[in-house]
Design a protein that fits this description.
The structure holds two protein chains of two kinds. Chain A is mainly alpha-helical. Chain A starts with a helix and ends in a 7-residue tail after the last helix. In chain A, strand 1 and strand 2 form a beta hairpin. In chain A, 73% of the residues lie in helices and 2% in strands. Chain A folds into two domains: 56 residues; 223 residues, Orthogonal Bundle (MetI-like fold). Chain B has one domain: MetI-like fold, CATH 1.10.3720. Helices cover 72% and strands 0% of the residues of chain B. The chains are: A mainly alpha, B mainly alpha. The interface between A and B is large, with 105 and 103 residues.
């Protein structure tokens, strides 16, 4: 905000300083167009255009043969009775509930931990972010191997500690949780970095003052850190939502929606409809549904974690 | 006394954290150098009885693994270069020039941050099919070049540079493009590094769209190729964990090299933009 004000202020200064020589605003428009054109062309054709076209296609029946017929809202009507679609929404929401709270809570704790002065914390930070930069398909394969029912190392340790083997990916009731664990492992470091940046933005004087006032560490954390972290938390929640709703790679590699439909999320179902059953129209309707869910989530999030403009 | 306890507790916690994040990778590496018979034996062992590289040679001999790697490298590098070129120009205009519609254009671009490729891949696919772009490098490179994160990062960076820089140059009679090329770009190295690593890793890891756009085995990118090793994806495949893990380990290496070299910028990039490439 302050940035924008500053730059427009500077621009105004510019205008007055060049007054009389040439009308800067007009000439800048032309130059700006030159700078913008290459990007905008690619952006329009490969991003904005398709995004808008998707909404239009959702009103058509369009199979791979290319035959195209307008069917109004029939694709959306079909959703109402399509039990697989209902399952996919439910799974997406469950998956969301399974991943969001641990991701926020654990990354906040991890960030608080890494924010202390100690040797080796930079190593810790780098290590924590490694899972995030790995190819998600690779992450899926590695975890599949650890989750293996018979030879998996996780079951080995569980049995060693006296537990009984868990059918991580083959039990319908467990599979979604197993995938959620992998996602938490993958995204934890990324969220931690976001929180760390937020923590480092809190002025040190506030902590010193509260220590002088005799507040305990816990009190300081609850009364100073958390409220001041609100904008960061709000951003992390939004990003985590967008990331989990669009999640595809790991689930595709690990379970491909199975067993049964127990890990079928909306994006999985979208892929199956459009690129395995070749129903582009219906797939586009699911795309629109994904968008709507995202918008609703962000809307709710904004209500709950409203950032006060004054802060 | 208590302070010492506290201190050692901290380090134990740090070690636990590192173990949690590195354990799966270490285990994958340990298993990739075992013969398949030993992988499928109980109890699992960290140190193999017989050390072998046969899993690695199998991957390289029986699959077009190196072609996949080359495809990934070409598309990721070209995609990243295109992003650097297109986005630095556009972001410069958005960040430094005053013109009508600037806010509208910037707002539209940034809104697309919230719209994942899943939400527009069907029209994209239909369009690429129509113009014969499917199964080419271009079908992967162009959609990745329409990058939004880079616009977000670079625009706010260009905005933050002091005005006096270009005013002096303008008085000296430099054109806008010269100012951009000779003065602004050299100053932008940190921001450009951030964009480079964020977008390169995103391109390198990209999975869903390349899987849809590429149909021939030889043209696959590394992530899509590696996924073929998984039983749940390809039920016909002679699925063996050893080869799959060896394929995984080899794919991790380039990411790790790039990441460790540029991790500072990567971390800064996430911290300032909060968005992956």
């Amino acid at each position: 905000m302050s940035n924008r004000q500053m730059s427009s202020g500077a621009a105004a200064r510019n205008l007055t300083s060049t007054k009389g020589t040439k009308p800067l605003r007009a000439s800048q428009g032309k130059i700006a167009a030159l700078f913008l054109l290459p990007y905008l062309a690619v952006f329009l054709v490969f991003r904005l255009g398709p995004s808008i076209a998707g909404i239009a296609i959702s009103f058509f029946k369009w199979d791979l043969a290319g035959s195209l017929s307008f069917i109004g809202i029939n694709n959306f009507k079909r959703m109402l009775t399509d039990s697989n679609f209902h399952t996919s929404i439910l799974n997406t929401l469950i998956f969301f509930v399974l991943t969001l709270p641990p991701l926020i809570l654990l990354s906040l704790l991890l960030a608080a931990f890494f924010n202390q002065k100690m040797r080796g914390r930079n190593v810790g930070r780098v290590v924590a972010i490694i899972p995030y930069v790995l190819i998600p398909a690779v992450v899926g394969i590695i975890w599949n191997w650890m989750y293996d029912n018979n030879f998996g190392i996780l079951n080995f340790y569980i049995k060693k500690m006296g537990g009984s083997a868990i059918h991580w990916l083959t039990n319908e009731h467990v599979a979604l949780i197993s995938v959620a664990i992998v996602i938490i492992w993958s995204f934890l470091g990324y969220n931690t970095i976001l929180f760390l940046a937020g923590l480092q933005g809190i002025p040190k004087e506030l902590y010193e003052a509260s220590l002088i006032d005799g507040a305990t560490r816990f009190q300081t954390f609850m009364k100073i850190t958390l409220p001041l972290l609100k904008p960061t938390t709000s951003m992390v929640v939004t990003l985590t939502m967008v990331n989990t709703v669009q999640l595809f790679d790991q689930i595709y590699v690990m379970t491909n929606g199975g067993p049964g439909t127990s890990t079928l999320t909306m994006v999985q179902y979208l892929y199956t409809s459009a690129f395995q059953n070749y129903e582009m129209g219906y797939g586009s309707a699911i795309e629109v549904a994904v968008l709507i869910i995202l918008v609703i989530m962000i809307f709710i999030q904004n209500k709950f974690l409203k950032v006060d403009e004054g802060v | 006394m208590e302070k010492g306890m506290r201190q050692s507790l901290k380090y134990i916690l740090l070690i636990v954290i590192c173990v949690v994040f590195l354990f799966p990778l270490a285990w994958a590496l340990a298993c990739s150098i075992k013969p398949e018979s030993e992988i499928l034996s109980y109890p699992p062992k960290w140190i193999p009885d017989t050390f072998t590289v046969s899993n690695y040679t199998t991957v390289l001999e029986k699959y077009p693994y190196l072609s996949w790697g080359a495809n990934s490298l070409i598309t990721a590098v070209c995609g990243t270069l295109m992003i650097l070129f297109l986005s630095s120009l556009a972001a410069y205009a958005l960040g430094r020039f005053e013109f009508r519609g600037r806010k509208l254009i910037y707002g539209t671009i940034v809104t697309m941050l919230l719209i994942p490729i899943q939400a527009y891949m069907i029209p994209l696919y239909l369009m690429c099919a129509k113009i014969g772009l499917l199964n080419t490098y271009a079908s992967i490179i162009f959609p990745s070049a329409a990058n939004v994160t880079s616009i977000f990062i670079l625009t706010s960076f260009f905005k933050s540079l002091p005005r006096e820089l270009e005013e002096a140059a303008r008085i000296d009679g430099c054109g806008e493009f010269t100012i951009f090329l000779k003065i602004m770009l050299p100053l932008s190295k940190p921001a450009l590094s951030t964009v480079t690593i964020l977008t390169f890793i995103a391109n390198w890891n990209s999975f869903l769209w390349p899987m849809i756009a590429i149909r021939s085995d030889k043209m696959l990118t590394l992530p899509v190729g590696i996924a073929q090793f998984m039983g749940s994806v390809n039920s016909n495949a002679q699925f063996q964990y050893g080869t799959a893990l060896a394929a995984c380990c080899m794919a991790i290496i380039p990411t790790m090299v790039v990441f460790l070299l540029l991790q500072r910028y990567f971390v800064e990039g996430i911290a300032t933009s909060g968005i992956k490439g």
